[in-house]
């Protein structure tokens, strides 16, 4: 009689342990799926951020490059074929023009094209680094999930729940090419 009670207690404890493990493993899969979805959202946020940032930075850089090109072209055309009197007059006009440019540059020193191009490059590096980090996090979470699906004994729970492996993030062929930036 005592042996039956001991065997029954062992079976109950084993059953409860297996049930607890089953529930815990199932919940672990759910947590991993949430992390994968969160990481995928992080990639989407990083892509949106990169697009917004690069679009704005490119517009600003193009605008300032065009402004400086126009100013330089005007100065060069003013100097062509001039005699000394015309050069003096042009020099005075250039001085007035430079005073206006300097006033703008002093009021907005960050708006010089060299700095804008530098900012553009820095923005590109930051956006790409953030995107790479988001992709690595996603792939790391996918690795953990896919491994848990394949490894015994958690594979038993995964198969019973019909869990499927997630695909790793891989760049499309077109996106593997270098981006061409033109002004």
Description:
The chain is mainly α and 183 residues long. It is 83% helix and 0% strand. The protein has five helices and no strands.
Draw up the topology in text.
Elements: H1 2-79, H2 84-107, H3 113-150, H4 154-160, H5 173-176
Question: Descriptors for this entry?
Answer:
about 180 residues, 5 helices, rod-shaped, about 85% helix
In short:
By secondary structure, the chain is mainly alpha-helical.
Instruction: Note the total helix count.
Output: 5
In total, how many beta strands? 0
* Helix and strand run: HHHHH
What is the overall silhouette? rod-shaped
Low-confidence stretches: none
What do the pLDDT scores average to? 74
The secondary structure category is mainly alpha
Q: So what's the oligomer here?
A: single chain
The share of residues in helices is over 70%
Rg is 32 Å
Main beta-sheet strand count, sense and barrel state: none
Question: What's the end-to-end separation, in Å?
Answer: 90 Å
Tell me the strand percentage band.
under 5%
């Amino acid at each position: 009689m005592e042996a039956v009670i001991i065997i029954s207690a062992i079976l109950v404890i084993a059953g409860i342990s297996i049930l607890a493990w089953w529930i815990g493993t199932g919940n672990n899969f759910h947590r991993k799926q949430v992390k994968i979805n969160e990481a995928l959202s992080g990639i989407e946020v990083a892509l949106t951020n990169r697009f917004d940032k690069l679009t704005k930075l490119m517009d600003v850089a193009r605008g300032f490059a065009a402004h400086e090109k126009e100013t330089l072209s005007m100065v060069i055309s003013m100097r062509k074929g001039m005699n000394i009197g015309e050069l003096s007059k042009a020099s005075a006009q250039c001085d007035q023009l430079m005073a206006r440019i300097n006033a703008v540059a002093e009021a907005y020193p960050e708006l010089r094209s060299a700095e804008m191009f530098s900012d553009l490059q820095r923005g590109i590096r930051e956006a790409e680094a953030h995107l790479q980090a988001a992709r690595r996090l996603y792939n790391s979470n996918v690795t953990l999930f896919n491994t848990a699906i394949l490894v015994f004994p958690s594979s038993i729970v995964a198969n019973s729940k019909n869990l499927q492996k997630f695909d790793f993030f891989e760049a499309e062929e077109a996106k593997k090419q270098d981006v061409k930036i033109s002004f």
